[in-house]
């Protein structure tokens, strides 16, 4: 029964999105004389809320031009906006602010999408101990966090002093890849006092004890070691 209700619900959602909502938008445009993008830009202040609505409108548009606009190169944003306004039959002379608003929002959209792609690429790139650049970043991290303590070797128990789990820190980058190392190094370089304080706090037994769950503090003999 639950499966049947789920299927019926999905059917009505599909029907609403594909038919009723598009029909409603057509009626609203006829009544107001404005397309959905115009209504979004005129009824919302500049900012994340408006940009998100514009992105959603373009993503679910029936026009391929609007869908593909979300992935255009930043250099082609202005030309894309002109094409969208032509497609929507919007006169740029009587709607000068619309083009500016759409361009600003689309630049934000393609910008953060590009950033997400770069971040995901870094996350998927594994740490390579044969890569000199990777090794240099790792050594630099040690110097930032332990400036007065020479590292005895590439494989060493000393790495545990700055939070790594074992003798070879490369094994700790399995989940986040090179992104994890870059974030740690950036933190250590640009906010060193905070990074050192956090490291010092994490090494204090009393601090660790306070961070344990209440049941573990009250029953230390039952804690899982």
TrEMBL record:
Coiled coil: none annotated. InterPro entries: ELMO_dom, ELMO_domain-containing. Residues 206-225 are annotated as: Disordered. It comes from the Eukaryota. It holds the Pfam family ELMO_CED12. Residues 133-225 form the ELMO domain. PANTHER family: ELMO DOMAIN-CONTAINING PROTEIN 1, ENGULFMENT AND CELL MOTILITY. This is ELMO domain-containing protein 1. It comes from Ataeniobius toweri. The lineage of its organism: Eukaryota, Metazoa, Chordata, Craniata, Vertebrata.
